[in-house]
């Protein structure tokens, strides 16, 4: 760090250096003369990073390796026989091997830049191979473009070709897998070393992202069949709801609709990443093609036209299935809300009926309570007169009064007092009831 920055004791952000290193990472490899490039892509899991590092370490066993560029997500190794570049991305890792070609060197059908790599090491690469492509870079002085064009036949494979880098080079490919590899032929006319490296890098990225984008197509086809069945189920369910004649039918329909909603959301969660990734990858394909700055070769489709005709329909299928899923989810949610509203209204009606029945029962209980209160006055009067009778027995000797007379006189007095007390208590409870409510 600059001495003034050190003396100022500035608090540097911990990510400043790593972010700047990442910004300048993965520069294209400058290429000069004839080069054979073999590019492998493996789809990996989240826990295979350590395995990849161990595999890369074993690549140098028995070889003199020089690490030119090294970080957590990329590595470039230089050996006497080849140069290897490794990159780790979100869901895949790429291994690109470069082998220089001598002027006029003739390649057989099985020649690759991997010939110097031990087969045991290749078997240890973690993940599943998704892309294997090969780029043969030659000068137009070695291979004339006209000779390549002359070798094309109308009944042969569909060849994609274009002048690239502002007509500084020629690129040919058919994007078909032959002998395990898809292939590009690049004829360099006037590109610089770095232009050549960028062109080769863009070509292998086009092939990589093309295959990664197509990973969403089988899922889209599978989801499309499931969507057709689910849409039919929803339509039948709506007919069933329209014909529902009882709350039980509506509750059963709501339970079925909730199950369908869960299935739709599970499908959306399962496919969202893949469809989003496919869309991102196809955008990167078209961006890399645009960066080639291609121009047409008479009679042959350009890379942009080829992708528009072959890749875009599959991507539109993925986009259509994604929209259908979202629309189905919205329809299920809407219908669920409508059905819940119907069920809630029916439950509210039943609650009103129940409250009415409870009100009638309360009135009946009130009448019974009033009847019981009348009987309570009689009972309390009886027990009160008996109490007076017993007290009268104790005082009769002093006042020479008749016990029966005392008891008879006390009965109406006790009855009036009990009735007045009961009435007063009832009024007091009636006043407290609204306050409590």
Walk me through the structure.
The chain is of the alpha+beta class. It has 11 helices and 9 strands. It has helices spanning 3-7, 16-23, 49-59, 119-123, 145-150, 193-214, 216-242, 247-292, 303-310, 312-399, 403-436, and strands at residues 34-43, 66-70, 74-78, 83-88, 92-101, 128-139, 160-164, 169-173, 182-188. The protein has a 9-stranded mixed sheet with strand order 2-3-4-5-1-6-9-8-7, with helices on one face. A hairpin with a 3-residue loop joins β4 (83-88) and β5. α6 runs antiparallel to α8, α7 packs antiparallel against α8 (247-292) and α8 packs antiparallel against α10 (312-399). The protein is elongated. The two termini are 76 Å apart. The mean pLDDT is 86.
Secondary structure layout:
Elements: H1 3-7, H2 16-23, E1 34-43, H3 49-59, E2 66-70, E3 74-78, E4 83-88, E5 92-101, H4 119-123, E6 128-139, H5 145-150, E7 160-164, E8 169-173, E9 182-188, H6 193-214, H7 216-242, H8 247-292, H9 303-310, H10 312-399, H11 403-436
Parallel strand pairs: 6-9
Antiparallel strand pairs: 1-5, 1-6, 2-3, 3-4, 4-5, 7-8, 8-9
Helix pairs in contact: 6-8, 7-8, 7-10, 8-10, 10-11
List keywords for this structure.
single chain; 437 residues; alpha+beta; 59% helix
Radius of gyration: 45 Å
Helix count, DSSP H or I runs of 4 or more residues: 11
Overall pLDDT level: 86
Give the topology string: H per helix, E per strand.
HHEHEEEEHEHEEEHHHHHH
Distance between the termini: 76 Å
**Quaternary form:** single chain
Low-confidence stretches: none
Q: Largest sheet, order of strands side by side? A: 2-3-4-5-1-6-9-8-7
β-strand percent reads 5-15%
What profile does the largest beta sheet have?
9 strands, mixed
Number of strands: 9
């Amino acid at each position: 760090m600059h001495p003034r920055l050190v003396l100022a004791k500035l608090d540097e952000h911990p990510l400043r250096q790593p972010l700047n290193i990442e910004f300048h990472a993965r520069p294209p490899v400058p290429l000069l003369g004839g080069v054979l490039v073999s590019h492998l892509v493996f789809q990996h899991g989240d826990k295979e990073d350590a395995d990849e590092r161990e595999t890369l370490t074993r690549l140098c066993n028995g070889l003199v390796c020089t690490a030119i560029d090294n970080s957590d997500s990329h590595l470039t190794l230089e050996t006497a026989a080849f140069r290897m570049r490794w990159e780790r991305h979100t869901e895949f890792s790429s291994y690109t091997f470069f082998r220089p070609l001598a002027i006029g060197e003739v390649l057989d059908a099985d020649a690759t830049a991997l010939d110097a790599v031990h087969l045991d090491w290749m078997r240890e690469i973690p993940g599943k191979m998704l892309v294997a492509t090969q780029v043969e870079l030659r000068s137009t002085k070695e291979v004339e473009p006209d000779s390549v064009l002359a070798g094309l036949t109308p009944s042969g494979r569909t060849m994609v070709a274009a002048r690239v880098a502002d007509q500084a080079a020629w690129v040919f490919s058919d994007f078909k897998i032959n002998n395990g590899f898809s292939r590009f032929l690049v004829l360099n006319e006037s590109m610089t070393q770095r232009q050549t490296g960028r062109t080769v890098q863009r070509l292998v990225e086009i092939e990589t992202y093309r295959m990664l984008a197509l990973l969403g197509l089988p899922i889209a086809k599978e989801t499309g069949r499931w969507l057709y069945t689910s849409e039919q189920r929803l339509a039948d369910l709506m007919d069933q709801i329209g014909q529902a004649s009882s709350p039980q039918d509506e509750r059963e329909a709501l339970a079925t609709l909730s199950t369908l909603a869960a299935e739709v959301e599970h499908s959306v969660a399962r496919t969202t990443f893949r469809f989003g990734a496919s869309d991102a990858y196809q955008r990167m394909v078209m961006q890399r093609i645009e960066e080639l700055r291609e121009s047409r070769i008479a009679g042959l489709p350009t890379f942009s036209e080829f992708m528009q005709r072959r890749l875009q329909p599959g991507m539109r299928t993925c986009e259509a299935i994604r929209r259908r899923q979202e629309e189905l989810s919205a329809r299920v949610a809407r219908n669920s809300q409508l059905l819940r509203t119907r069920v809630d209204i029916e439950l509210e009606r039943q609650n009103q009926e129940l409250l009415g029945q409870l009100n009638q029962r309360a009135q009946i209980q009130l009448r019974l309570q009033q009847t019981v209160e009348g009987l309570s006055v009689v009972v309390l009067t009886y027990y009160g007169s008996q109490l007076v009778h017993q007290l009268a027995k104790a005082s009769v000797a002093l006042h020479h009064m008749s016990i029966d007379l005392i008891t008879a006189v006390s009965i109406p007095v006790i009855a009036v007092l009990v009735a007045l007390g009961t009435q007063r208590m009832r009024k007091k409870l009636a006043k407290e009831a609204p306050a409590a409510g």
